[in-house]
Amino acid sequence: MFNIEYSDFDEYKLVKLVNEKTGEYFSFLPNQGATINQLALKGKDGRIHELVDPSFDFERRLQERLEIFKGSKLFPFPNRINSGNYVFAEEVYQLPINYPEEGHAIHGLVLESRFTILEEKIEKGSVAATIQYKYDREFDGYPFKFDLNVTFSLSTSGFRCKTEVWNKDNVDIPVGDGWHPYFKTGIKVDDLWLSLPSHAIVEVDSKKIPTGKLIYNNQFDELTKIEKRSLDTCFKLSSNRDDVVINLVDKSKNLKICIWLESGSDKYQYVQIYIRPDREAIAIEPMTCVPNAFNNKHGLIVIPPGKQMDFNWGISLSDFLPH
What we know:
3% of the residues lie in helices and 50% in strands. With 323 residues, it is mainly beta. The strands form seven sheets. Strands 11-12-13-14-28-24-23-18-21 form a nine-stranded antiparallel β-sheet, with no helix packed on it. The protein has a six-stranded antiparallel β-sheet with strand order 17-26-25-22-19-20, with no helix packed on it. The chain starts with a strand and ends with a strand. The chain is built from two helices and 28 strands.
């Protein structure tokens, strides 16, 4: 019923998890920083719906800076570090400025890293692949050692992603985790509806760096049509449960994409929502911390030597049933 397929595109590899019975699939790029490439799930209408904007057009990714982070794994920090500069344990560090348009270090250090496949598991109701990257102080601005494991799985209940990080150093290490998938259903973002459990957004300055203030905002507390809103916004998630759910709805196709996040302390406490200028897709980015967390410490996770942390999120598809 489930299977794993492999393809090579020049130096790039594509791994595809497939439900052969339903036609559902998920693919990723282990040689390109564990980048999420495709996700297609079956709706109640019996059709397969592509839900993630593919990442594999590498020529376009290199030509268009806004495309280069599509589907990326964001580690050891999501979003921005102001001017790439931070202080940790009374030491000053300088990260590479990989987004010169803004003058910041952005979206971590593993974008182009090559992960190796550790384990593949095919069972009656699911298929999974675990990949690993061993970081050994490759960048002077982050002189710490860690092992990073990512497990992607596809089952009868949808898609799931688990990140595990081990501190392999003899000192504490600062980390933040995130992902950068773009969602689409084939219509303009303007005509999609969004809900998320948040009553506050993170205020940022002209450089997109947090000011330290949270602004009350409940615009998506109920399912709300996106319309012409321009969003590049970090929302603080609010919930009394361990998991939170973000809903993205296409009423024209009777589809509800449910993005669930393991939330709470040292988990995905924030989500960045970003709409591209072409308004063909919307990024919904799970994040454990706010932008510039290496400096402001909001949501920053510090892992002691020899310890491990994990972060989980996933996606399912259902009908939209209006009340």
